[in-house]
Design goal:
Blueprint lengths: L26 E6 L3 H4 L4 H4 L5 H4 L2 H14 L2 E7 L10 H10 L34 E4 L10 H7 L4 E7 L1 H14 L3 E10 L3 H16 L3 E3 L1 H9 L1
Parallel strand pairs: 1-2, 1-4, 2-3, 4-5, 5-6
């Protein structure tokens, strides 16, 4: 006799994820911008003089979550941020901002032209390599839904709940989670699977999700996520 697939529910704060009765194939893990330009000593962020230790800290927890998600049958999606080689998709105001701050975006660096599609720095880090069949969403905005087909991909796969991981928690992860929330997806932010350049920004990002009884979703840990999927 064939038994139905077990329902999955992850312990989280202020409520478990998901609240609906969903099966693994209706849930997704999205890994945001774990690229060499953000996590590698020769990448964009390190070139700004920032300490990338906090941006590398999520690598192992994300790897464990990826393994659990793949084994359980969740949809796994990766995103990458970067621009066309001719910078035609870089808004003028952003280019002026980069020039004003002395940013290396578009300029040669140790990993090729910084944040340019196709360059070595644009690639996902080897520790979290994309497996065949896993969608990769390339974006130019902070939010993974803006200007991309991410929503189309998720709805085609009948996904209704999304767990978020990646860098940085206060910018691209948070923006993408808010976009997903507005589109009706139930969201889970994996606290130890995200990095921020400043500790205060990490704390703010977590708290801003939890206010108003979970206005944007719930906050959980990689341990809770893996345990629920393994069970």
């Amino acid at each position: 006799m064939n038994l139905p697939d077990p329902l999955i529910q992850v312990s989280a704060d202020p409520y478990p994820w998901p609240l609906e009765d969903l099966r693994a194939e209706q849930m997704a893990l999205i890994v945001i911008d774990m690229q060499r330009d953000f996590c590698d000593p020769g990448g964009y962020v390190a070139g700004l003089g920032a300490d990338i230790t906090a941006l590398r800290a999520p690598i192992d927890p994300i790897a464990r979550c990826l393994a659990a998600a793949r084994a359980a049958g969740l949809v796994v999606i990766h995103t990458r941020q970067g621009y066309r080689p001719d910078l035609s998709d870089l808004p003028l105001w952003r280019r002026l901002k980069f020039d004003r701050s002395g940013s290396a975006v578009g300029k040669p660096g140790p990993l090729g032209r910084v944040l340019i599609r196709g360059e070595a720095g644009f690639a996902t880090i080897e520790e979290l390599a994309v497996l065949p069949g896993e969608p990769v969403i390339d974006k130019t905005a902070n939010g993974a839904f803006t200007g991309t087909d991410l929503d189309v991909v998720l709805r085609a796969k009948n996904v209704r709940a999304i767990a978020f991981a990646g860098n940085t928690i206060d910018v691209c992860v948070h923006t993408s989670m808010r976009e997903a929330n507005d589109r009706g997806y139930q969201c889970l932010l994996l606290s130890d699977c995200c990095g921020a350049i400043e500790p205060g920004l990490h704390a703010w990002a977590l708290r801003s999700v939890q206010v108003e009884a979970g206005v944007f979703g719930s906050v959980g840990t990689s341990q809770d996520f893996v345990s629920a999927l393994s069970a």
